[in-house]
Amino acid sequence: MSNGRYFDSKAIGSSLLGTCIVSVDPLTICTDRAIADVKPSSFMETGKIFEDLVEETFGGKEFFWDKYFRSDLKTFPETNSEKTGLKNILQMFENENTLQADIENGYVYTNPDKAGNVKLNDKYINRHRCLDQIKAHGYRRPIPAPIWEKLEIMLERFKRFPFEFMGNIFSVETWIAEYAETLFQVDYFWSSEGASCRAKFDMIWIVEIEDIVYAIPFDLKVTADDVQGEKSFGAFVGNWRKKYIWQSKHYHEGFQLWCEENGYVPHNQIHYLIQESEFPQITNCWALEPRELTALDAPYRQALPVIQSWIDAGRPARGYMKQITVNRYGKEW
Questions:
Q1: Tens of pLDDT along 214-225?
Q2: Spatial contact of 42 and 226, defined as CB atoms under 8 Å apart
Q3: Per residue in 52-73, is it b (16+ CB within 10 Å) or e — as a string?
Q4: Residue ranges of the domains in the chain?
Q5: What Å distances lie between residue 168 and 172, 207, 262, 275, CA to CA?
Q6: Cβ atoms of 176 and 201 closer than 8 Å
Q7: What burial letters (b/e) apply to 257-296, b meaning 16+ CB within 10 Å?
Q8: 287: number of CA atoms within 13 Å, CB side?
Q9: Model confidence at 66, in pLDDT bands (50, 70, 90)?
Q10: What sign does the dihedral 118-123-124-126 (CA atoms) show?
Q11: Which of these, 280, 196, 173, lies nearest to 6 by C-alpha position?
Q12: CA-wise closest residue to 89 among 98, 79, 97, 74
């Protein structure tokens, strides 16, 4: 699992690139889009849990149930934080140092009556039940019952996916059990074009074939059941076009250097193992075509110093984009 150094770092990650790069021809960057905080959601939480479940299953370390517990709740109860002034439960788990205090102070009470008495607000009964369960389970993270049922199916689908490499096709489970040394949550930092960069590889396989030791990088994605009315895989495709192509390029650059430092022959693509959470929980595997990686090279290298300069300046908000004339498809004329 990644340490705090990665998430506390100001180095450029793939999410920042994907958020800032609006278009390639001409290169258009909007750093203002990266200023807003991303609030945790139950969908994002499911992805984190699945990554941990995969690492627990294949990584040889028992940590999963020290971090989570199964709850009988149907979902993560969310509260109007602006109305109550309190954090949502998922937000509480973002800071371990304040977690217990946030949980203890997370209950919503009624306004005082004439005698000055208050009681728990019945409108937030599910929130209160969740807080009670978290305290009873040593402040571990709850997994709502329907999410756990999906996770079990997702894991079985994931295990059976037939991955092909160098003409060899085995299930993911067989690759890991018999052919690959597997590394999880590998952080890497490097410099490029005067910019500080970072990447976190969810999974790396070290595979020896005919006396050559290859390294194969993977990123795990979990699709939501439904995103603003769009079915889960369609939402992933939309993110692929806007963000994940830049993650592919960024991770490709970092992975080549990581392999050089560690003495491995790098596979020239990062593979996305995309696990759908919606029935029937299909597993997909995508990789960006190498020629596309080459096509992204020039705008990628132009974007890095621009974003680095913005970071060095304290991430200022400009608040506008230049005036342009566009065609019917929204592309600059």
A1: 999 999 999 876
A2: no
A3: bbbbbebbeeeebeeebbebeb
A4: 4-32+161-312, 39-158
A5: 12, 11, 24, 22
A6: no
A7: bbbeeeebebbebbbbbbbbbeeebebeebbbeeeebeeb
A8: 15
A9: very high
A10: positive
A11: 196
A12: 79
Question: Residue 3's pLDDT is what?
Answer: 55
Q: Which amino acid is at 28?
A: T
Query: 4-32+161-312: which CATH architecture?
Result: Alpha-Beta Complex (3.90)
> Is 282:157 a contact under the CB 8 Å cutoff?
yes
Is-contact 255 249, C-beta < 8 A? Answer: no
Q: Nearest-CA neighbor of 275 among 264, 286, 266?
A: 286
Residue 4 has pLDDT above 80, yes or no: no
Q: Assess whether pLDDT exceeds 90 at residue 286.
A: yes
- Output the CA–CA distances (angstroms, integers) from residue 290 to 9, 25, 56, 197, 257, in the order listed: 29, 20, 32, 21, 17
How confident is the model at residue 39, as a pLDDT?
A: 61
Amino acid at 96: E
> Six-digit token pair at 126?
């599910």
What is residue 322's predicted lDDT score, i.e. its pLDDT? 86
Asked if pLDDT for residue 43 goes beyond 90, the answer is no
Quickly count: other Cβ atoms within 10 Å of residue 18's Cβ.
Answer: 20
Strand partners, 332: 326
Question: What is the chain's alpha carbon radius of gyration, rounded to the nearest angstrom?
Answer: 22
pLDDT above 70 covers a percentage of the chain that reads 94
